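Quick one, probably user error.
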C-alpha cells in the first residue's frame, strides 16, 4: 500500500493549471492507483489520466480501484515498462512517479548488497546496480519525450532518501541526472515518515518537481 505521508504530499500539492483543466496526467508505476485518484480529484472532470505498470496485477488493481471511485471513464491503464510505446506516446501535462523504496530482495533478506532477484519490486526498483538500466535513469531520460509543451508542465518524483542512507544511491545523484536530461528541480518538499512500528526510526520522503 502507498505510505500515508506520500498520500498527504500528493493531496496537498498544487496541480498545474493546464493539467487540472482538461489536461493529461500520466502516472508511471501506478500500483494501486491511489495517487492518480488524488490528482484527478483536484482536477476538473475533463482531465484524463494514463497509468502504467509492468506488473499486470497492479494494472488490474488500479483499473478496478479507479472504476470503483467513479473515475474509470477518465483513465487508460496500460501494462508497459515505464512509458507508453511510441505509437501511443502521451504528451502529459503532469507526470507522477513513486518508485519502490528499496529492492524487494533487500527488504526480504535484510542485507544491503545482496543479489537482486526477479520479483516485481526488484524489476521496478530504481536502485539497479547499472544506473543506465535503473528505473530512475530510464524514467528521467524518458521525461522529455512524454511531457507536453505546456509552460507549466511538471513531473513529480516521489521517493525516499533511504537508498542514500543505505549507500545504494549517491547524494546529489538525482539532481545530476535531472540536469543531465536538460531539466531542473524547481521545488523540493520533504516530510518525515515513520518506518515500521518504531516511532523513533524515521525516513525522509522527497518530492521532486522537474521541468
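Nope, works fine. Designed sequence:
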Amino acid at each position: 500500500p502507498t505510505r500515508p505521508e506520500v498520500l498527504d504530499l500528493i493531496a496537498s500539492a498544487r496541480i498545474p493549471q493546464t493539467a487540472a483543466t482538461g489536461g493529461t496526467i500520466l502516472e508511471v508505476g501506478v500500483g494501486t492507483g491511489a495517487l492518480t485518484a488524488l490528482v484527478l480529484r483536484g482536477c476538473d472532470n475533463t482531465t484524463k489520466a494514463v497509468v502504467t505498470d509492468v506488473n499486470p496485477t497492479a494494472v488490474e488493481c488500479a483499473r478496478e480501484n479507479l472504476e470503483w471511485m467513479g473515475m474509470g471513464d477518465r483513465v487508460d491503464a496500460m501494462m508497459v515498462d515505464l512509458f507508453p510505446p511510441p505509437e501511443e506516446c502521451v504528451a502529459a501535462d503532469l507526470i507522477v512517479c513513486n518508485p519502490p523504496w528499496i529492492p524487494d530482495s533487500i527488504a526480504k533478506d535484510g542485507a544491503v548488497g545482496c543479489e537482486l532477484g526477479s520479483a516485481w519490486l526488484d524489476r521496478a526498483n530504481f536502485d539497479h546496480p547499472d544506473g543506465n538500466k535503473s528505473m530512475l535513469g530510464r524514467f528521467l531520460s524518458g521525461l522529455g519525450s512524454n511531457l507536453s509543451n505546456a509552460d507549466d508542465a511538471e513531473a513529480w518524483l516521489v521517493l525516499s532518501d533511504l537508498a542514500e542512507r543505505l549507500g545504494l544511491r549517491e547524494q546529489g545523484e538525482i539532481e545530476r541526472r535531472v540536469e543531465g536530461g536538460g531539466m531542473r528541480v524547481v521545488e523540493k518538499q520533504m516530510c518525515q515518515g515513520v518506518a515500521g512500528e518504531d516511532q523513533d526510526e524515521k525516513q525522509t520522503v522527497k518530492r521532486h518537481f522537474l521541468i
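The chain is about 30% helix and 20% strand.
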